[in-house]
Amino acid sequence: MRAAILGARRDMDSLGGMIESVTTGLPVGLGEPVFGSLESDISSGVFSIPSVKGVEFGSGFAGSESTGSQNNDTFVLRDGAVQTRTNNAGGILGGISIGMPLTLRVAFKPASSIPREQPTVDIKSGKDAVLSVKGRHDPCVVPRAPPVVDSVVALVLADHALLGGFIGPVL
């Protein structure tokens, strides 16, 4: 990753990438089944972060290529607690937390502000032009993203805990 980012900087370009966020210890019952679902509120918050272009929970897009019997999270009893055998749902079913780890991946686009010359249009003259962004710019925002994503997720979870409607103790 380091070599790829340094290579992009050397080439006056930028890179995108993906990070994963995992939150453990959530109570069962945060969220709502339709409006105010935990997935939609987390997605809304995460999409407010500049450069974010995609969010997936649990098995995400890969789950769309499996069957229901392969992707379903079957329930089991572990140490007196109901849990799921797998976590393909990413800790949320029907918009509500199920007590399993909340897992999501977030995709970031490459930064568009790069020093490499790119074709554009001069709107004053209506003619073709060349754009090159000057100054210091990160060739990749992904290494800075994890604490930002985790903070947004924490804010949304705190909001849902304050809204109530959960089953079980708030941690």
Automatic annotation (TrEMBL):
<keyword id="KW-0028">Amino-acid biosynthesis</keyword>
<comment type="pathway">
    <text>Metabolic intermediate biosynthesis; chorismate biosynthesis; chorismate from D-erythrose 4-phosphate and phosphoenolpyruvate: step 7/7.</text>
</comment>
<dbReference type="GO" id="GO:0009423">
    <property type="term" value="P:chorismate biosynthetic process"/>
</dbReference>
<dbReference type="GO" id="GO:0010181">
    <property type="term" value="F:FMN binding"/>
</dbReference>
<dbReference type="Pfam" id="PF01264">
    <property type="entry name" value="Chorismate_synt"/>
</dbReference>
<protein>
    <recommendedName>
        <fullName>chorismate synthase</fullName>
        <ecNumber>4.2.3.5</ecNumber>
    </recommendedName>
</protein>
<dbReference type="InterPro" id="IPR035904">
    <property type="entry name" value="Chorismate_synth_AroC_sf"/>
</dbReference>
<dbReference type="InterPro" id="IPR000453">
    <property type="entry name" value="Chorismate_synth"/>
</dbReference>
<keyword id="KW-0456">Lyase</keyword>
<dbReference type="GO" id="GO:0005829">
    <property type="term" value="C:cytosol"/>
</dbReference>
<dbReference type="GO" id="GO:0008652">
    <property type="term" value="P:amino acid biosynthetic process"/>
</dbReference>
<dbReference type="GO" id="GO:0004107">
    <property type="term" value="F:chorismate synthase activity"/>
</dbReference>
<dbReference type="GO" id="GO:0009073">
    <property type="term" value="P:aromatic amino acid family biosynthetic process"/>
</dbReference>
<comment type="similarity">
    <text>Belongs to the chorismate synthase family.</text>
</comment>
<keyword id="KW-0057">Aromatic amino acid biosynthesis</keyword>
